[in-house]
Amino acid sequence: MTTTLSKPTVNDIARHAGVSLATVDRVLNARAGVRPVTRERVNRAIVELGYVRDTAAANLARNRVYRFTFVFPDSPSEFYDSLEAQIHSQSDALSNERTLLNIVRTQAYDSQSVVEALDELASQGVDGIAVNAPETPAVRDAIGRARKAGIVVVALISDLPSSFRDHFIGIDNRSAGQTAAQLMGRFINANEGCILFLTSSRLARDHLERRHGFDAVMSARFPGFKVLPTIEVRDDAHLVESILPNVFKTWNGIAGVYASLSSNHGLIEYLRQSVIKPIVIAHELTPASRAGLQQGVFDALISQDTGHIVRSAVRLMRTTVESVPHNALQERIRIEIFLKENLPPA
Amino acid sequence: MTTTLSKPTVNDIARHAGVSLATVDRVLNARAGVRPVTRERVNRAIVELGYVRDTAAANLARNRVYRFTFVFPDSPSEFYDSLEAQIHSQSDALSNERTLLNIVRTQAYDSQSVVEALDELASQGVDGIAVNAPETPAVRDAIGRARKAGIVVVALISDLPSSFRDHFIGIDNRSAGQTAAQLMGRFINANEGCILFLTSSRLARDHLERRHGFDAVMSARFPGFKVLPTIEVRDDAHLVESILPNVFKTWNGIAGVYASLSSNHGLIEYLRQSVIKPIVIAHELTPASRAGLQQGVFDALISQDTGHIVRSAVRLMRTTVESVPHNALQERIRIEIFLKENLPPA
DNA sequence: TTGAAAGCGGTACCAG
DNA sequence: CTGGTACCGCTTTCAA
Fold this sequence. Notes:
The structure is a homodimer.
Chain A: H1 10-17, H2 21-28, H3 36-49, H4 55-62, E1 66-73, H5 78-95, E2 99-106, H6 111-124, E3 128-131, H7 137-148, E4 152-156, E5 167-169, H8 173-187, E6 193-199, H9 205-221, E7 225-227, E8 231-232, H10 237-250, E9 254-260, H11 265-273, E10 279-283, H12 287-294, E11 300-303, H13 306-322, H14 328-331, E12 336-338
Parallel strand pairs in A: 1-2, 1-3, 3-4, 4-5, 6-7, 6-8, 6-9, 9-10, 10-11
Antiparallel strand pairs in A: 11-12
Helix pairs in contact in A: 1-2, 1-3, 2-3, 5-13, 6-7, 8-9, 10-11
Chain B binds a DNA duplex through residues 9-11, 19-26, 28-29, 32-35, 38, 53-63.
């Protein structure tokens, strides 16, 4: 077990290499103006003593402030609201660690609005951007410009092709869809029926991936069921409530509903007064969905922890800016399953 | 959104209050030797300027090293092994943050061994102990002695009455049992049958709580099932394998198995060759249980993230020692549910 | 190309 | 009781 006490410091390196503090610092930070020989001597000392920099002291001396901005849609969604709440609540503690958080909410379903936000941030010169946006060419180009300007860009919740971002922070949505299907198939007490698939946006990659995963498991493991074509409802509660009656009328025998939405209000309202009680699996733990689960309108929730997402995004932007390694396991966002029984206290 | 740049420092306080740095430090750290009037003046300055101490700088100046020790049983358990692995893997990064981790594995099911470990640590003078132990009077007294010696003690995985420890890091085991029951009842395609309940130790509080939660939900929601008396197997793979054949012979119609074990090897071995294929819900994600889930021997896993547990324990011991607040939400260990589909990549 | 020295935000010793 | 000051580990002018 670890037991060493005093780690070597820059002073030790300097002494060991027979140079000054300033020179050690130069090679440590890869600054120019050091003869190759000297550099070599210092590097040898670093290795021999097993030096590892004290980042806390470094940041203190540097008096550096990190500015990170979260960019995500302004749609009326409890999930995004929870994300925003988390950012707010964490920004206090982080401001004491030289890290400033900001939020930009973009026009929902409008990639031009994302582009403007990114370009604006690039010109302001933030250090990192965590963005949730559709995968359009315009967005991709704006991200490219930001990255060219030296800004770290991480994808939030919905992935972006890896060549366009430094990290992805979110769940594996295909697995999430598969998980929902497995629960659905097991929870329904029948071997056949129709399953309704609702989504906020047919464009967003995360929703698409869920559908693929869901279909794969349903057809392989529960072939008696028919998953109906995706219905897009754009997080509009009224839209949901007006569409659903017709849907349930058109397809009789709806045994299950898989709701890949970021706002569940409309669905809950409809189900509360519906006489048909299908098995319902929804996404994201929010006050509304929690109530839905507790009241038995929902049977299970697939979720991702917004607090964890925000912490991971910040850590990842930080380590990327500082170009130090990160702990991949800690940053992996879990696909959480909630039943009424394992709901965390509110 | 947050946007302020420069926080007030001790220098600002000193100037504002018209005293020296040393005096500010005295009141900040509640050291003696300051006239009430002066103290009052400094406190007012602190409030007025909204000062909040930079702990990184403080630790640097103090050159303080935190010594924390994890104490848990030495039983042949994949779960405890995973805990140990996490401690090892995190101790590297932490040693760069002035935090040293140690491990003491006690004789399994022997509270005297725990007592000796605690007393030894108290005499060595560590800063914090994270302990997993049965709730016996001797253990309770040893914890009391350690705390009296100024050591922060947190309970790990299995709770200890709140008056005996500073924090509990682990899941709500009653809820975990309820969750298992809900899944069990839903997954079994029948309305009646026997359910087997296996446990490592009938003494440990966590296992007891699971049983209570499990029974509550089974009898309320799935009354057709009979949950058999608890069978204690002490994490002994051979014991499990030798007992189970008889159990399955004695009780015909075993529809489900709830395994509250910290080592699943024996159970998996038995089930692999068994002709009866009950629904099986087990605890903890380990290489063995992962394989069990993937091969269909297990239907679901209830788990707690050992990485998270270690990080939380360290943060909690640290904040308690420093007497600064912690983020309760971040420290809440989740009751995770794993199906084959949402298993994280190995 | 190199080094001396000041300073980041705090802490702690010593003198008065 | 209070203040002066060196120092924690590292960075960053400014001169040499």
